[in-house]
């Protein structure tokens, strides 16, 4: 773990977010940014449990988070 990031076997892979019924690329596993700190120039990770950070599979668009227990390898 470095810079509040955690290792995960699916990092960099496409995963299915069962909570939002979306597929995206898992880019990070770390706590969500503290909302109060996100208004400053320095974003400070929150102190909660790590969540999955995903981005759309094509690489553009808005990144989103979901609880780790809601990511699965996509069905073929």
How would you describe what is shown here?
The structure is a single chain. The protein is 0% helix and 32% strand. The protein is built from no helices and five strands. It has strands spanning 14-17, 22-30, 51-55, 64-67, 71-72. It has a five-stranded antiparallel β-sheet, with no helix packed on it. A hairpin with a 4-residue loop joins strand 1 and strand 2 (22-30). 12% of the residues are buried. The mean pLDDT is 83.
Strand pairing plus helix content: what structural class? mainly beta
Strand content: 25-35%
General shape:
globular
Alpha carbon gap, first and last residue: 31 Å
Low-confidence stretches: none
Task: Report the biggest beta sheet as strand number plus sense, adding barrel if it closes.
Answer: 5 strands, antiparallel
* Count of helical regions: 0
Q: Tell me the strand order in the biggest sheet.
A: 4-3-2-1-5
Order of helices and strands: EEEEE
Rounded to an integer, what's the Rg over CA atoms?
A: 13 Å
Beta strand count: 5
What's the pLDDT, averaged over the residues?
83
State the helical fraction.
under 10%
Q: Which secondary structure elements does this structure contain, and how are they paired or packed?
A:
Layout: E1 14-17, E2 22-30, E3 51-55, E4 64-67, E5 71-72
Antiparallel strand pairs: 1-2, 1-5, 2-3, 3-4
Give a quick set of tags describing it.
5 strands, 32% strand, 5-stranded antiparallel sheet, mainly beta, 76 residues, globular
């Amino acid at each position: 773990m470095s810079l509040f990031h955690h290792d995960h076997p699916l990092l960099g892979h496409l995963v299915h977010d069962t909570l939002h019924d979306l597929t995206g690329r898992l880019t990070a596993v770390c706590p969500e940014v503290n909302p109060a700190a996100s208004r400053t120039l320095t974003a400070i990770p929150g102190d909660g449990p790590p969540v999955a950070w995903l981005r759309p599979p094509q690489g553009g668009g808005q990144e989103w988070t979901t609880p780790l227990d809601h990511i699965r390898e996509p069905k073929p």
